[in-house]
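Follow-up to my earlier ticket, as requested here are the two runs.
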Amino acid sequence: MSWVALDRGIRLATESGQPAPLARWIRERDAIYDQIMQLGWSPARQAFRQYVEALARSGRVDQARMTFAKMLTYANHLGLYSEEIALTGEQIGNFPQTFTHLALINAALALDDRLRRPGYIGAAAGSAMQAVPMRRNPTRV
């Protein structure tokens, strides 16, 4: 979103003729774009990677682990996810969503790979599967 905000600000300033630090905005916009494309784009898949996967692959392992743990809290009582999660935490869109589950699995694998690398010393070294205790819900549906 930062890239879009800067891009639209550049466009508005240019089209309206209003003074703005265009050189700085262009430099920052381009730096954000380059980082997104280098860390978040998968040429093999022709798609953007899930956020946790991008954090893990960029070396921000503790942040990736925390985000992954938070994501797990949005599953329903069966551990399933919908297409989207509203700001309220409510699951919206198609349900269950296969692509969401595949992205979650890919993120877990990328995070686990980083956590298991020799020399990793983080807030809590170990496996991604140890990030959050599995919820056990005895309720049957």
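Run two:
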Amino acid sequence: MDPKIWQNIRNGDALAMKTLYQECFQELFAFGFKMIADKEKVKDCLHEIFCDIWQKRAQVGEVNHVKAYLKTCVRNRLLKEIKLDQKTDQISGQEFEYLTENSYEQLLISAETDADTKVKIWRAINELTQMQREIIKLKFFDELNYEAIAMMLKLKPRTVYNHMYAAICKLRDELSAK
């Protein structure tokens, strides 16, 4: 790809933007589809990226490796999309029936028990390997799925499953022993 295209886009050349889109769309689509097997989400993501580039062309900096930059944009945007999808699970109406108001004493006891449990969990997590801690963090704190974790850590999904299984077994042993 001609490096001048990026500079021309920054200067407001709509034809350069069209050229960039036409030259990169298929490759970026294939790249994105490997992350999320949802054609419409990947297309939407790509369109948003190209629109953002055009709208913010005056603020966009110099880029030497345009395709690598675009792939990073796609990867980051799709990871945000994955996280968003996981967070948008709605509480069903039936779950509201179980919500009750607790007394002050019950809240204090609950808070103290929760604090003790958190300390035990953090101690157990610190007994894990670095890789196991990273996978636990990505899965449960960042709410990513196994495929996204595998892509981020450049591992096979099966390896991520195995690390997760070993970590959960170790956590279970550590927490039941204390």
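The only thing I checked on run two: The CA atoms of residues 109 and 115 lie 10 Å apart. Let me know what else you need.
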